[in-house]
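User: Sequence in, structure out. Go.
Assistant: Echoing your sequence, followed by the structure tokens.
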Amino acid sequence: GEVLERVQAVDTIVLDKTGTLTVGHPSVTDVVVLDGHEAAQVLQLAAAAERGSEHPVGEAIVEHARAAGEDPGFSVIGFKVIPGQGLEASVAGRDVLVGTQRLMTERGVDLTAAASEALERLEGQGKTSVLVAIDGYVSGVIAVADTLRPEAAEAIQQFKRSGIQVAMLT
């Protein structure tokens, strides 16, 4: 009973982000294709390369491809993780890089203005973004984020209507 009486005095609630306000695992939010490449091809090749990865971003890309009907069933040769940067693999005879701008630079892949703009825009939205290069050319950018739970905004609004300040700890 005492706890319920004390709850009336609460004026601030602090919520954890991951798994409380968000669904708790990353998912693909955007697939930006560049230079006339097909979205399906970029997604298929990136997902096939990521199939051997245990990284949450790679798992999100594979899951998204499967959900989109773009099952990454290609054969993969020479899969290699580059810690902190991404990965490289030969997928269906194509050289595929999936990773950071640093990885692309170190492998001699030039970033076009469109690739840089897409990367900057998506990261400005708080999304984790990876570049996808096929045969030495940046072909796309895939963004991943831990998306909000559908009920999160309404729950926060209810707290605010009740006069409770809401803060997020992440």
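User: And one key feature?
Assistant: The chain has a mean pLDDT of 90.
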